[in-house]
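Example 3.2
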Amino acid sequence: MIELHRNAGKGAGYGRLTAIVALSVFLAPGCMLRDLQRQVEMIDQACLIEGTVGPADQEGQLVMVAMVPGAADEGRVPRPVDYTLADRSGGFSFALAPGDYRFLAFADRDDDLELDDDEPARHAYGGQVVDCGVGQQLQQERINLAREDRLESREGLSVKGSRSLVSGAMESAVSLGQLTSFGEVVPLSDPRFDAETARNSLWRPVDFLRAGHSGIYLREPLDAKRTPVLFVHGINGSPRVLEPLIEFLDGERFQPMYFYYASGLRIRQVAWHLDRIMRELEHRHGLQRYHVVAHSMGGLIARAWFMDRVGGSERADVASFISLSTPWNGYPSARQGVDHSPVVVPVWRDMASGSSFLESLSRASANDRMPPHHLLFSFGESGWLSSESSDGVAALASMLPASIQRQAVSVFGVDSGHVGIVSDETAQQRIEHLLLQEEGLPGDRARLEPPLGAANDN
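Structure, written as tokens:
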């Protein structure tokens, strides 16, 4: 059964403003479309390098380092430009600017993400340069790291320093890692979270990345005594949109983290980036468990991440997943954009009704990678472009497909608009109740009205 909670009054229809974006392609000036075309071409030029490193039973986390080759005749050593943590199966990947690179593998036995003299390490691929051309996706051969492997010299090698860029010199970055926030403490009032910056990330996703906006942010340094809650915003949004939920969080028991991403990118690209960041933060801070709260398209990103997330004893436990007003079946307007626009925003291909991406999410079955899913949907505003039942942006049919409902632990309806749900007191109390419930704690402030129906029991 589905729980429905009606409010006596409704907030302003801000969600309707968000829906206008669906028509933006037909109203966009030629210069915006040309700029979008340039951004899409830049995305296609990126180089992706993937591979595996092992064995998996190495003592310590396996770390891969990407380096720009030094000029031998000038006596320069390779310069690290990024690093990443291998997953449980040894898999790793880098998103880099086209160019020549060398790679280094090591086992981080003391968890400091730096290479020490007594830690196994070796230059990958025999120390040979890997030429990654424009738009290439290279699958490299497996790297076997023996326990006795050591580097002859690691002079001038700083792994964590590889991401340090001179202030204001973002254009010098050659890797996505150099442009990513891995837990930077930044207030939600920071200009990077402004609505205009968030909206522009749909049309100019590469500019958003190159400005160094993407990544996971904290309001304050992580506190081991509190359980983190990761917030994921929706399309054209930023963490600031979710501030009403973040402020309602019980600050003595929970600690907010927020993921910021470019709205225009393909969803699996965003999910891949999220996984890479969280894998490192889990390792760096020793995170054992956390919750995920995602609004609108953020729910699609989170589910795609869970599907591909490789677990294991070294990964933290995602204790629960709470989605709000997520359009699981996408938007017909995005399909119109894909079918008729002279230039297509990459994310529209995933958000279009009937897309292969959405079908893959729907087909995925519940497994040990999927945390308990609590589905919240909004129904407080009628569609402004059609007579179908909706929350002013997403149709109820899109938010409540049977395949997703069947896998949800609970389904809960809120009488609000698409964006208004984050400010709705009933929704806020419901989320707090669910978080406390998953933590096995009493709900001090969760005082919900008696439900009109019982929660799902599947």
